[in-house]
Specification:
Blueprint (H helix, E strand, L loop, with lengths): L14 H5 L2 H10 L1 H16 L8 H12 L6 E2 L3 E3 L10 H10 L19 H10 L5 E5 L2 H13 L3 E5 L5 E3 L2 E2 H6 L4 E5 L7 H7 L4 E7 L15 H5 L5 E6 L15 H6 L4 E5 L10 E5 L1 H8 L3 H4 L4 H12 L4 H7 L2 H17 L5 E10 L2 E15 L3 H5 L5 E2 L1 E3 L2 E5 L8 H10 L5
Parallel strand pairs: 1-14, 2-12, 4-7, 4-8, 8-9, 9-10
Antiparallel strand pairs: 3-11, 5-6, 10-11, 12-13, 13-16, 15-16
Amino acid sequence: MTDRSADPRRRVPRTDAVLADPRLAAAVASLGRWRVKAVVLEAQQRARRGEIAPEDVTDAAAAALARSTGMRRIVNATGVVLHTNLGRAPLSAAAIEAVVAAAGYTDVELDLVTGRRARRGRSALAVLAAAVPDAGAVHVVNNGAGALVLAATALAAGREIVVSRGELVEIGDGFRLPDLLQSTGARLREVGTTNRTAFADYRTGVGGETGFVLKVHPSNFVVRGFTSSVSVAELAALGVPVVVDIGSGLLAPDPLLPEEPNAATALRAGAALVTASGDKLLGGPQAGLLLGRVDIVESLRRHPLARALRVDKLTLAALEATLRGPQTPTWQALHTDPAVLRERAERLCDALRSAGVPAEVASAAAVVGGGGAPGVELASWAVSLPEEYAEPLRRGDPPVVGRVEQERLLLDLRCVPPSLDEALFGAVRAAQPDA
């Protein structure tokens, strides 16, 4: 006679017992009981099929929930400050708090004094205008490409945009600037060559059909050698509007990045309009910033396309909080003293070696990323591990993403806040083979 009590399927924990686990209970509060219960039932079925041990059902359900909840917070140890695949700029604590507050009903378009409709996002726009006093007016759309599309549509649809051939860039994921601009109904008047464009080229290209002259910062590559370009101040003398796409969202000069274009300098040099991204060097949410002459910005704001590119209240809240301060995580990552990073790397490696992990301190070169400051390297320090740690760290909780060089995994600390050192230590320990 078969002993049914020996059947491992009888040891599969009951659904209510699994749901009582703190990890699952917390998931019920955020995801809903039906979704969590479905994951638990699947884990129980896996145990009944013999795929996992009955005592692992709760852990399997918790792990499955962690993988199925969409985007997850990760530890960015790549050394790329603005990593597009990792969401570019992480928001500051102040911006996160502002987003949470704005998630409910807000006065985004209401004047509480008069009780009447008010300009959308007026407080965020006022703070942006104060941050760039050289701009006569400001506006915000959904992203940097959206800002350029709105400018091309409103100022040059059916007309010409004069632009240097060396600035017709591909901006990522196969999207090319010429295609983006021509989709607005504008025609491109290419001048100069890939490596050299002179003022005379622009002067010859400008005519009665010119909507504006466009100057684009080639933010994801560098051309060296026999090169020449034309400054914004020179272009402003042509007598037509000059639109400058600075890309990375630097509002004022930064000594750390002396070659990176910024909004204040471009406007003082005579740019009629500057377009930029909010989620790069500015350190805020994804947004497209439009800064420039009052008449031009107002014509863009009133254009029908502006409605389709409008930002939501969460973006406005995060942008305002970013501009008000304090220093953003992006600024902190860029400006951290390498000596501080080395001290942290040494402490982490000492602790990891004591735990049996073959960790070494390694010098590293971090980069800005996100289409900002191409060619600029930031001295950094990293925890070096065997390459086989890479996958389990990516799949861990929290996921840790580093970079592999010469068969070693480097966990670059430039983008890792000191508050995460303990979590990083725990993640590496959990990723140990046979840990």
